């Protein structure tokens, strides 16, 4: 019944971290979801608890060994565990609200956090891992990305969000890439340092407010995220080749 998150990491002390506070933390305390951070190093068998080795073919950095990662997965997932296994890596498919909704609707997730240069690709494929990235920038490990993914899922679990916070109306809410960025928000005072709140919001004309907000949403989306307005942009991740080098020019 409880949505179960297991994180496989070399730095279990990073969890729950920020997920232990705010909405997610309250949901955790109330048993609406669970979080287990497991140390990958705990399954290493040799004297030095080795988890990584140098990359075949040469190059910088270290690669997590497939036997160690496989043992960590096996130890974390009981026989018949139906939870998807997600590997956080900048090589992954971009995280979108559609995937977040799908993961949140299931039994939970097992998250593998990469460190060093990466994880041996054989265990990634043998375990059928979904490779996910949270954006086009490089983090020093998958742990912060795992927290981002978990936060985005947990807020969709029934009961986690209070009445005050609505999961609806927000940017990407209705159909993720088919939606618009949010309109700007204002509260009291109506004048601050000589700056007035847009008069239409004080008018009490609900239809005009709705129209102004829609126009603002369209304008900011056109300015910042024109890709969200075109079918091409919406479908870009679906059509993105898994192996760019092999795609036609
Ligand atoms: Cl999932 N991991 C790392 N290390 N860097 C990232 C990322 C993930 N997503 C964006 N950058």
From TrEMBL:
Every tRNA methyltransferase TRMD/TRM10-type domain range: 5-230
- Which positions does UniProt annotate for S-adenosyl-L-methionine binding? 114, 134-139
In the record, what terms sit under GO molecular function? Answer: tRNA (guanine(37)-N1)-methyltransferase activity
What segments bear the compositional bias annotation Basic and acidic residues?
A: 213-237
Q: Does the keyword tRNA processing apply?
A: yes
Q: Where is this region: Disordered?
A: 213-249
Reported EC number(s) for this entry are: 2.1.1.228
Subcellular location(s): the record lists: Cytoplasm
Give the keywords, sorted. Answer: Cytoplasm, Methyltransferase, S-adenosyl-L-methionine, Transferase, tRNA processing
Instruction: Give the catalysed reaction(s), semicolon-separated.
Output: guanosine(37) in tRNA + S-adenosyl-L-methionine = N(1)-methylguanosine(37) in tRNA + S-adenosyl-L-homocysteine + H(+)
Q: Sorted alphabetically, which Gene3D superfamilies does this protein's record hold?
A: 3.40.1280.10, tRNA(m1g37)methyltransferase, domain 2 (1.10.1270.20)
Q: Which Pfam families does this entry report, sorted A to Z?
A: tRNA_m1G_MT
Broad class of where this protein is predominantly found: cytoplasm
Q: Which GO terms describe its cellular component?
A: cytosol
Cross-referenced NCBIfam families: PRK00026.1, trmD
Assembly, in brief, is:
Homodimer.
| Function statement | Specifically methylates guanosine-37 in various tRNAs.
Q: Belongs to which family?
A: Belongs to the RNA methyltransferase TrmD family.
| Official protein name in the record | tRNA (guanine-N(1)-)-methyltransferase
- Origin species, per record, is Muricoccus roseus
């Amino acid at each position: 019944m409880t949505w179960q998150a297991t994180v496989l990491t070399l730095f279990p002390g990073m969890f729950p971290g920020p997920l232990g506070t705010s909405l997610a933390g309250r949901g955790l305390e109330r048993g609406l979801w669970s979080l287990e951070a497991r140390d990958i190093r705990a399954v290493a068998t040799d004297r030095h608890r080795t988890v990584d080795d140098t990359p075949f073919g040469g190059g910088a950095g270290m690669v997590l060994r497939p036997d160690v990662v496989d043992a960590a997965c096996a130890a974390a997932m009981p026989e018949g565990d139906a939870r998807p296994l997600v590997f956080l890596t900048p090589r992954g498919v971009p995280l979108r609200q559609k995937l977040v909704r799908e993961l949140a609707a299931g039994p939970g997730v097992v998250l593998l956090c990469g460190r060093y240069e990466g994880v041996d690709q054989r265990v990634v494929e043998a375990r059928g891992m979904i490779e996910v990235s949270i954006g086009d920038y490089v983090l020093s490990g998958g742990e912060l990305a795992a927290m981002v993914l978990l936060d985005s899922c947990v807020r969709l679990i029934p009961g986690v969000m209070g009445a005050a916070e609505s999961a609806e109306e927000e940017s990407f809410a209705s159909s993720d890439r088919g939606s618009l960025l949010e309109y700007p928000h204002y509260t009291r005072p109506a004048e601050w340092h000589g700056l007035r709140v847009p008069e239409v919001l004080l008018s009490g004309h609900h239809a005009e407010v709705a129209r102004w907000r829609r126009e603002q949403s369209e304008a900011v989306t056109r300015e910042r995220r024109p890709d969200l307005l075109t079918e091409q942009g919406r479908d870009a991740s679906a059509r993105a080749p898994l192996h760019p080098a092999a795609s036609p020019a």
